[in-house]
């Protein structure tokens, strides 16, 4: 069976709730490999909710649909405060990337409490800002940034990640609306352990199955290299 945009592969999927330090309940989902423990965990931080970003944004939905089966990864997705999706609406209101620090902490606490291994943050657009600003937690193995705008996240945040020392990979579309590969390489140069990967032909939203496959492959190559490259059939 060829893996297509709508393909949903076997996994153990369960709705979850996260509880923030400032008293909110966030809705989410955890997808686990079927019948075996995960080798690593992706905590997904979604694009800007005021522009339609949510836990079901297509890259994350497809990651949850494929990677537990194909790469033995746990995929934790959730709606940040005030964000809605088919799963439901998280309590609270949009905090412009500041109050969401409690949301990131709640997701990492959930991963730790449930003994999810080898936790990686995967941020997309607005989610990359949350990763850089609030993701420097001892539990975090590393981070992968998809279409980082570097707007809310400043050079000070990059310097702090440099000091944090954990791996950092930025996948930057050739035709991104906010930050393109050459500028990204200059901005991330202050993080010695950062790798910037320019993706030819891609745009900010990674629309199209060829770009989805590139993103998922690059994630797996760093998080579980033994499963790279991902098959195109299942």
From TrEMBL:
Protein name: Alpha/beta hydrolase
Gene3D superfamilies linked to this entry: alpha/beta hydrolase
Record organism: Streptosporangium saharense
